[in-house]
Amino acid sequence: MLEFCRAELLQENYFHAIFEAMKSIAAKIRHTSGLTTDGAELVNQAFALGKDCRPILAISSLKTESDKGEQRGFANLLIGLFGTIRNPAAHNPKIEWPMAEQDALDILTTASLIHRKLDSAYLYARSTA
């Protein structure tokens, strides 16, 4: 993740650092899954569990209800991060969306966790829907 936002962090440009970190998550999902979509659509296509579809990427074996719950929670976390962090950064001017250092560090810590989960995710199956 740091390769995406190192320059911004060194400049203490937290707004753009977290924006680049969030974009790096979508880029990793696209690279791993082979999908080309973005945002919630990308997450749903890559990780969604449902009656008529199977995820392309899995973060666990998906054998138990707990595994499936973790998969759904991970997808919800990603959608939430895109909606609350990446989208405002993409659509609001920097001066209208101040980013404090502590907030940036918290967001970057979450992005790091996401990247570690994505590093261990594997191709599961193509959607049947």
Topology:
Layout: H1 2-10, H2 14-33, H3 39-47, E1 57-58, H4 65-91, H5 101-120, E2 122-123
Antiparallel strand pairs: 1-2
Helix pairs in contact: 1-2, 2-3, 2-4, 2-5, 3-4
Overall description:
The structure is a single chain. The chain contains 5 helices and 2 strands, in the order H-H-H-E-H-H-E. Helices cover 66% and strands 3% of the residues. Helix 2 runs parallel beside helix 3 (39-47), helix 2 runs parallel beside helix 5 and helix 3 packs antiparallel against helix 4 (65-91). The chain is elongated and about 45 Å long. It is mainly alpha-helical and 129 residues long. The chain has helices at 2-10, 14-33, 39-47, 65-91, 101-120, and strands at 57-58, 122-123. A two-stranded antiparallel sheet has the order 1-2.
Name the strands of the widest sheet in spatial order.
Answer: 1-2
The residue fraction in helices comes out at: 55-70%
SS elements, strand count:
2
Mean pLDDT: 92
Oligomer kind: single chain
Approximately how much beta-strand content do the residues carry? under 5%
Outline the low-pLDDT stretches. none
N- to C-terminal distance: 32 Å
Q: Report the principal-axis shape.
A: elongated
The structure class reads mainly alpha
Radius of gyration: 15 Å
SSE order in H/E notation? HHHEHHE
Separate helix tally: 5
Largest sheet: 2 strands, antiparallel
For the structure shown, list the relevant keywords:
129 residues; mainly alpha; 5 helices; 66% helix
